[in-house]
Amino acid sequence: MRFESVFLDAVDPSLGRLDYASLSQQALMEMVIEGIANKEKICGDVDEPEDIEEWKGVTIEDGEVVEIAWCQFRLRGALHLEWLPISVQIFSVGRNHKITGTLDCASLPTSMKVLDLAYNAFTGSICLEHLPEGMEEINVTNNELSGSLKLESLPDTLRHFDARSNQFSGSVNLTQLPAALLYLQLEKNRLSGSVVLTQLPGGLQVLNLKDNQFNGALDVRRLPSSMIYLFLNNNSFSGTVDLSQLPQGLEKLDLSDNELSGEVFISDALFGAVYVANTKIIKRHME
């Protein structure tokens, strides 16, 4: 049995990350997958794990792990993200469906840029204010995460944030999103309160708020010119809405299944892009 494995047996889990700096990259990686029931899919022989250079889905540069890609490996059990080597920039374990664990953003590698945990069974809350400063993409869709989402704390460099199909709750602040943000997907949670859509990032292309409990009035007169898709359907938005100043490149605006009403005047070019099923909105062609 290799030294790293013997050393791991001696590490007291109650010590947390106290010994993190003293562990080799091999030892850290073995700690990451310690709770995976079928870890042989990654490291070969469980009793005599291969060197991490031979692990499936692991990319190493200059002796350090920079990328971990374990998507669709059918892994089962818990991943311990707090032991990820500090050098990891991309961590992708999406669509394993049965991976559990929690997400302590403060313990993620400072060099991390991409985090994909989609379609698994991660639980607990996520403290967005503690994310690594250089993060570019986060995908936690279809998990069992809960708590609030402090979107105003997202890193300035973030381009994609996908948190669909979880149990997040509370209100969200859309007025201080990262300037680099292109895609924001919050569909199918328990989010509530009013939303401000007049101070979105200038380059935002997709905003998906459908299937939540948002309410109040809607002002879509100052959407970013880059906006392509805006999903607001299946909420409790109410009142009238002015659709006379929509972005010319908009391909879909879905207002269906809300408590909206009144006449709306839409340009011919965008008339078919606006969906109002199960509302009291009456669509009119702009003269």
Question: Can you tell me about this structure?
Answer:
With 287 residues, the protein is mostly beta strands. It folds into 2 domains: 1-124, Leucine-rich repeat, LRR (right-handed beta-alpha superhelix); 158-287, Alpha-Beta Horseshoe (Leucine-rich repeat, LRR (right-handed beta-alpha superhelix)). It contains 3 helices and 22 strands. It has an 11-stranded mixed β-sheet with strand order 1-4-6-8-10-12-14-16-18-20-22, with no helix packed on it. α1 packs across α2 (25-32). The chain is elongated and about 75 Å long.
Put the structure in a nutshell.
The chain is built from three helices and 22 strands. The protein is mainly beta and 287 residues long.
What labels would you give this structure?
single chain; Leucine-rich repeat, LRR (right-handed beta-alpha superhelix); eleven-stranded mixed sheet; 3 helices; disordered N terminus
Major sheet summary line? 11 strands, mixed
Topology as a string of helices (H) and strands (E): HHEHEEEEEEEEEEEEEEEEEEEEE
Please state the second-level CATH architecture of the largest domain.
Alpha-Beta Horseshoe
The total beta strand count reads 22
How does the helix and strand content classify structurally? mainly beta
- CATH superfamily grouping of the largest domain: Ribonuclease Inhibitor
Amino- and carboxy-terminal Cα gap: 79 Å
Poorly predicted segments: 1-10
Q: Strand fraction band?
A: 25-35%
Would you state the CATH class of the largest domain? Alpha Beta
CATH topology-level name of the largest domain: Leucine-rich repeat, LRR (right-handed beta-alpha superhelix)
Tally of separate domains: 2
Task: Specify the overall morphology.
Answer: elongated
Q: Rounded to an integer, what's the Rg over CA atoms?
A: 22 Å
Mean pLDDT: 94
User: Within the largest sheet, what's the order of strands?
Assistant: 1-4-6-8-10-12-14-16-18-20-22
